[in-house]
Please model this.
Amino acid sequence: MKKIELIPLVGIQIEGIGQVDLGASRADVQSVLGAPSDALDDQYYYDELELRLDFNGRGVLEFIESINGPNPEKTEISIYGVNPFRVEAAELVTILTDKNQGEVDDAEAGYCYTFLNSSVGVWRQMTEEDVQEEIEEIKADGEYEDNADMLLEDLEKSKFFWTIGIGVEGYYVP
Model:
């Protein structure tokens, strides 16, 4: 597993590879990471690092996201000394809120939070409550046994965020 440290407002440090700074050019990024697995106009994907990098219109790196949570297969992510995919969602929000020391956009509370001072964002598709409701509906329909494995897997996955990203200063400010 490749260890990647997310350093808010700075960039990422990748064990055995080096540092990629927010604000870097595409050429600077490629000089550290090599050619991306896939590239769109404003995004690079690095499959082996399970990362998506976003560039602004001037070709400057403005956002880095770990995209394969909560169970990355090739990377071990850390931010502020914790693995955000091993810390349950409520605890991670508390940690990130404390480090942010300012306004948190929780308009999509439960699913998505953006920490405006530190330019950190987290996201997940479903909450534990969502899965519990689904379990109750499926039980009422008498189809729980046929779906139990999938539902229990979803319930475990719903305890954690699925992506975490860091951006340049002001990235999440409207």
In short: The longest helix spans residues 144-157. The longest strand covers residues 2-7. The helical segments are 26-33, 89-100, 128-140, 144-157.
